[in-house]
Specification:
The chain is of the alpha+beta class and about 600 residues long. The longest helix has about 35 residues, at about 1-35.
Length: about 600
């Protein structure tokens, strides 16, 4: 009996301990949920009755170096559909109201079915006020259909800048997967140019407005009287290095032509103008781009979407003689007084013709007259490997790193290049053509402009860039971005000799005397690149004023003939647009006049 009572007592103790343990565990868990993790569970509970409405920030705008507004934001209405509440029988009605082909609304919804059905899908951007009025009148009969006011790009200064600015477009599913921490389906992101390269600076910070909703997700009131709301933060307003007037002049001069213009401030590497022609109308990308426009632009044989300023590769022609002269003088294989006789050409295996018979010629006269014979022979004194080594110091045969993304590296050959093709006994006669910028040499207009800027500024500048910095919204001052300095190993006295020849090209008896100016002295070099598929390409590089260079420029016009005839006059127009404005205004509006105390360096 005692044993039985003892066993019952033990079981009671065990049961008591188990119950006590369960109660303790539940108590701890309740304490954790109600005290420690209270905020977390409050938020989950709130999700059932609170709706977060995204507040899209205004995108940053673009100013030129003189604070002219180049790219602005203008309001636009966007129609949206939230699939969870939408009746697809309305598709045909919306197609008709929006002016779509039948089935377009259905197609857009189908493409976006990978997203949550509670995420609004943007159907058409830029709907007119008549459509907005119709939506307001029929809102009770259009479940899941609404509209929002967004901002689209406008271009108030009249500069096209299609390859410079880029445009915004709806985020692709592929990009959304990579960056969905910030973006939502239907968000617009930068595409090409500055819009893409500076997307994170331009997009700003999203805000959120919290509202109470009923079981049908209908808004009934603000949550906590708006205390939990978070204001959006506008994107940074960028200050470009572009001069609006020089850009306009370049665009005007390149109308109806294929080619590019790039102008740079020699001392800073700041791009003053960048034009690729033909261009395309950025306004067409502000709204939903029409199928007709896209078909037209994609089928255009002139390829207006191709950025010729940074991507087009052409032989530099006689503009390359400037580099050969710099290298030869720096290496000491010639000096200013070295004479090479030009009798109309040069023979090395075969006869290489000159376009004149210049007689006894030194390097300055050879540049002035663009004497092929002088440079045919000079390349053999320099050597191919030396030429490439110095060429890369000036930014050839590699990307310059410009801050708008897409860029081609080009090609400057060395001996190993030909050994791979021909073996060690490759034909040395190839060198002659390379000495005058023909053959297996390719450069971009941007590279030519940067080379010219370095030459004008005695071998020193900064990495080419189109954005100076941004405006601080709190104090209106400029926060400047920093860019790495670029230096070559060429001596100043070498630049002085070569620039003397470039001066005479325009102001002596050279190949571009017709662009001589009474207001300032231009120095330059013409070039004509041979084209086996049609007319030759015209090139010109130059800088001004000669005594204190403020602008360096490269112009390439495809399939028109001589550089002196077709490219040099364009360069003069752009130089005049920039320098005459500066002379007349004394730079009153230029950021270059701001004192050091007014400019804050970015961290």
């Amino acid at each position: 009996m005692n044993k039985f009572n003892s066993g019952s007592s033990d079981r009671g103790v065990i049961l008591y301990i188990i119950l006590l343990g369960i109660i303790t565990i539940f108590s701890i868990r309740l304490f954790q949920m109600q005290i420690i993790n209270q905020k977390e569970y409050d938020l989950k509970s709130a999700g059932n009755s609170i709706k977060a409405i995204e507040q899209i920030p205004f995108r940053g705008v673009f100013y030129d170096r003189n604070l002219n507004l180049l790219v602005d934001n203008i309001p636009a209405y966007t129609l949206r559909i939230t699939p969870a509440y939408y009746d697809t029988s309305l598709n045909k009605i919306l197609d008709a109201v929006l002016g779509f082909e039948e089935g377009m609304v259905s197609s857009i919804l189908q493409k976006n079915r990978i997203y949550s059905k509670y995420v609004p899908i943007k159907i058409k951007r830029g709907i007119d006020f008549n459509v907005v009025s119709w939506l307001e009148e029929n809102t009770n009969f259009l479940p899941g259909v609404d509209y929002v006011v967004e901002m689209q790009r406008g271009y108030p200064f009249g500069v096209m800048g299609s390859h410079l600015f880029g445009y915004t477009k709806e985020i692709s599913p592929e990009q959304y997967k990579l960056e969905k921490d910030y973006y939502k389906p239907g968000d617009y992101v930068g595409h090409n140019g500055i819009e893409k390269a500076y997307e994170k600076e331009l997009r700003g910070v999203k805000g959120y407005k919290y509202v109470l909703v009923d079981s049908k997700r209908k808004e009934i009131d603000r949550y906590k009287n708006g205390e939990a709301d978070r204001e959006s933060v506008k994107g940074k307003d960028l200050v470009l290095s572009i001069d609006g007037y020089a850009q306009k002049a370049a665009e005007e001069e390149m109308k109806g032509k294929r080619g590019a213009v790039v102008a740079i401030e020699p001392s800073s590497g700041e791009i003053l103008a960048l034009v690729s022609s033909p261009e395309y109308d950025l306004n067409q990308f502000s709204y939903v781009t029409t199928k007709e426009f896209l078909e037209k632009i994609y089928s255009d044989p002139a390829d207006p979407l191709f950025n010729r300023a940074t991507m087009s590769l052409k032989p530099p022609g006689s503009t390359f003689k400037i580099l050969a002269a710099l290298v030869a003088l720096e290496m000491g294989v010639i000096d200013e007084n070295t004479i090479i006789n030009c009798g109309g050409g040069f023979t090395f295996g075969r006869f290489f013709k000159c376009h004149g018979s210049h007689g006894a010629t030194n390097v300055v006269r050879a540049i002035e007259k663009s004497c092929n014979t002088f440079f045919y022979q000079l390349i053999y004194k320099i050597g191919l490997n030396n030429l490439k080594r110095y060429a890369m110091e000036f930014g050839f045969s590699r990307k310059t790193g410009i801050d708008i993304g897409e860029e081609a590296a080009g090609l400057i050959t060395d001996e190993s290049y030909y050994e791979k093709i021909y073996g060690k006994n490759w034909p040395r006669s190839i060198l002659a053509s390379l000495g005058i910028g023909q053959g297996e040499i390719s450069v971009t207009p941007l590279q030519l402009a940067f080379f010219t800027a370095l030459t004008a500024n005695n071998g020193k500048s900064f990495k080419p860039h189109v954005v100076k910095g941004y405006l601080d919204n709190k104090n209106g001052k400029i926060v400047k971005y920093k860019f790495p300095e670029v230096k070559t190993s060429i001596r100043k006295d070498v630049f002085d000799i070569v620039k003397k020849g470039m001066y005479l090209v325009v102001n002596g008896n050279g190949t571009a005397t017709h662009i001589r100016s009474n207001d300032f002295k231009i120095a330059g070099k013409t070039g004509t690149a041979q084209n086996p598929h049609g007319k030759d390409h015209a090139l010109f590089i130059g800088f001004a004023p000669f005594e204190n260079p403020k602008i360096a420029i490269a112009v390439v016009v495809e399939n028109v003939g001589f550089g002196g005839t077709h490219a040099a006059p364009i360069a003069k127009k752009v130089i005049e647009a920039y320098l005459n404005k500066e002379i007349n205004s004394n730079n009153n509006n230029s950021f270059s006049q701001l004192t050091q105390n007014e400019v804050m360096n970015a961290n």
